[in-house]
Amino acid sequence: MQPFRLIIPLLSALMSVLCFAPTAWAFCGFYVAKADAKLYNKASQVVIARDDNRTVLTMANDYQGEVKDFAMVVPVPTVIKKEQVRVADPKIIERLDAFSAPRLVEYFDEDPCNSYGNSGDIFLAAPSARQEEAENSTRDRGLGVTVEARFNVGEYDIVVLSAKESGGLETWLNRNGYKIPRGAQQLLKPYIRSSMKFFVAKVNLNKFAQSGYEFLRPLQISYQSPKFMLPIRLGMINATTEQDLIVYVLSPKGQAEITNYRTVKVPSNLNIPVFIKQEFGDFYKSTFETAYTKEGKRVAFLEYAWDMSNCDPCSAEPLTTEELKQAGVFWLDTNSSDEPAPTNFRRPFPTNNVFISRLHVRYTRDKFPEDLMFQDTSNRESFQGRYVLQHPFTGEVKCQAGKEYKRSLPRRFEQEAQTLAKLTNWNIQDIRRKMRVTVGDIRTSWWDTIFSWLGIS
Predict the structure, then answer these.
(1) Quick one: 32 exposed, middle or buried, by C-beta within 10 A (0-12, 13-18, 19+)?
(2) Where are the domains of the chain?
(3) Which helix (H) or strand (E) holds 437?
(4) What angle do CA 3, 360, 158 make, to 5 degrees?
(5) Average pLDDT of 329-343?
(6) Is the pTM of this model over 0.85?
(7) Which of the 8 DSSP states describes residue 28?
(8) Closest Cα to residue 86, out of 330, 308, 252?
(9) Which residue of 267, 306, 330, 377 is surrounded by the most CB atoms within 10 Å?
(10) pLDDT per position as a tens digit, 158-215
């Protein structure tokens, strides 16, 4: 159990003082699976809605353990008041996650003897308390700690602190029931030297019991600051292994990126064997791990970037205007429609003037020694982590085009196997065996030729 989470990585921009253009593919397929945040055991999620210097930050809690032991400390640039904090609906983060997750799409080859013919290698993807007693206040001041504000929101008791030195802050937190992990004092020093305040939240057990909720709900904070950062250093104190952080940045401008580490795109738009339909979760985890290792374990990955008024393909409906507001988007036209965009029609953007970037960071203390620095850009190029299953036509063919089509399949299947091996670092012979099993009962004499060509008996 990790009894105390000191600034969980969901704190995206806070420390900052509080912190394909898609090519037109030729025919429609459909979405069949997604790789959402549930794939990762230690994944934190944060939503940042940002325009100019104004930010609404939503932090989802992945805390595992008894809620009585939960606590969160977030460095903030200024005193946060009660009206700047609210409890958010966890379904909003689930919606953003589902909408932006890397996805698998599926296509079926047409009869190559039809007059409109084989579409070749061209595809279209079809389709986020009260004040201490006077004696306690005097004691706090002796530690160099000042309680700047104290209030509760939903099931959370919140205090905002300022401190003169990290030892005094550590002592205050310990005296008030916060279990500070070893090493916190040293990492608190840079924030104190920068005159940061500390937003501290823990669970009010009575209010949590009365709420009827089974899990902790996200906290949402609004603030204004010229800097755009994510304070992740303190969150590493509790970490025993690598941590995954997924950040959904909502902007009226365009793509967001991290400036003090490279931002790269996940491998995408690749054809892989059809058996991956049953193993997409394992496939994407292996693909991400391979890319992460190849990049030296010190980059941020862009998994999705798109205008929120549509998607192609849609793994979930675009968020409505009301849902976007719940996610913290504060610049929307109040006359915007709440009707979701049709899944088969790309509306002119910006209908809602919201662009989403999904950034995935896997980090450790040695590879990510600095807090993350973000910037939003005017780049509105669309991108998605997208993987294609292309089922071969298995009916009888009698035309010359059909014979040529069959002769082309062995090379296509081998290319899919090689692509999968390169993406995942899986054994190529195991992949070939699974490809043969997938064919199953639909094998015909020409399939024997294919597998002979592949060297599979």
Answers:
(1) middle
(2) 12-19+23-391, 393-457
(3) helix 428-439
(4) 35
(5) 59
(6) no
(7) B
(8) 330
(9) 306
(10) 999 999 988 889 889 888 877 666 667 888 888 888 888 999 998 888 888 888 877 8
